[in-house]
Specification:
347 residues; ten-stranded mixed β-sheet
């Protein structure tokens, strides 16, 4: 046999051999897939991710969602007949579930990974109804089973889901303030309640201290809380936590404290106490400048009596002119005047 013929036969044999191997592998794979699909789901395993302090939903609730519809219950159902995408939509329909991921492992167990919603605030409306607000600013219904320990906002003006422009802005400010408070350990423990006033501003009731914090609108949140923390450290730690009835941090680079007893006392550096006397530079309120004694006016000349049959009485000299205060323009510049202490609440 020619060498070329032998080489050709060897090549043909190798091709047939590898073709048979591949065909056998494909048959085995098809059989394994068929057997796998014919197997049935043996159970459900649920994994919850989120804040462990919020127990609004648990593994039992997730399993109940999946097996509630008997036609879609995966347990005991052939794997080929399980619609994972549909089951994910069922789980995500729960308002306390943010997202869900389902898959089957090698032990034919349905794994359900759930990310739950974590509330950052509870909002009460004028009508008395309430809802939770999560980190993404979405509403979460309240639960009869559990109440989250989050800051409470009261006085939200509407129950409507579709908000007007002014209500939408207020809603966004609530979310920003709630996220800031929840992320800070101290303020999360200190803030008891945030009241929404009629002009859509915020007033905070703290857990420690018998005072109200006038926050203003929901802007410059970090700056305002930083000012308040300095005032706590430099002012209340020395004067006492119940010395002030109101602490106003709504103004730029300023904290105004209203004392409960109305006494005047120097506040901490950089800050102003509303019980301190106001200072005014208004010249209209200044006392008149001292007036020097004016020179007496010259006496008018006395007319000599004309020759007449009867003597004429001499005319009395004119009275001195009344001294007038010097004009503001002519006198010295008036000094600052300290008015009486203002006991009214400026806030």
């Amino acid at each position: 046999m020619q060498p070329k013929t032998k080489t050709a036969l060897k090549r043909i044999g190798l091709v047939l051999l590898w073709s048979g191997v591949l065909a056998g592998f494909a048959v085995l794979l098809a059989a394994a897939v068929h057997d796998k699909e014919s197997e049935k789901c043996k159970g459900i395993h649920v994994t919850l991710r989120g804040d462990d302090r919020n127990a609004f939903i648990n593994e039992k609730d997730i399993k109940q969602l999946i097996v509630n519809d008997k036609s879609q219950n995966p347990v005991g159902t052939p794997i080929s007949q399980i619609n994972l995408a549909n089951l994910e939509r069922v789980v995500e329909s729960d308002p306390w579930v943010r997202s869900a991921e389902l898959y089957l492992d090698n032990q034919d167990v349905l794994n359900v990974n759930v990310v739950q919603r974590d509330p950052v605030a509870r909002v009460f409306t004028f009508s008395g109804s309430s809802f939770y607000l999560d980190e993404q600013g979405e509403r979460i219904p309240v639960s009869d089973r559990f109440s989250a320990r989050v800051p409470v906002f009261t006085g939200f003006p509407t129950d409507a889901v579709q908000l007007r422009k002014e209500d939408s802005l207020l809603y966004a400010q609530i979310g920003d303030m709630a996220r800031f408070i929840s992320a800070d350990t101290f303020w999360n423990a200190q803030v008891e309640q945030v009241m929404i006033t009629g002009d859509r501003k915020f007033e905070i009731t703290p857990k420690l201290g018998d005072h109200v914090i006038v926050f203003g609108d929901g802007t410059d949140i970090d700056t305002k809380f930083s000012k308040l923390l300095i005032f706590y450290r430099e002012g209340l730690s020395k004067a006492g936590w119940n010395t002030y009835s109101r602490i106003n941090i709504a103004y730029h680079e300023e904290v105004i404290g209203t004392r409960r007893d109305g006494k005047s006392a120097p506040p901490p550096p950089m800050y102003r106490d509303s019980s301190i006397a106001d200072v005014t530079m208004d010249a209209d309120l200044a006392p008149p400048a001292a007036v020097t004694n004016p020179k007496p006016a010259d006496k008018p000349a006395v007319e000599k009596p004309k020759p007449a049959a009867k003597p004429v009485k001499p005319v009395k000299p004119a009275s001195r002119p009344i001294a007038r205060p010097a004009s503001r323009n002519s006198g010295p510049t008036p000094k600052a005047v300290y008015s009486k202490p203002n006991q009214r609440n400026r806030n």
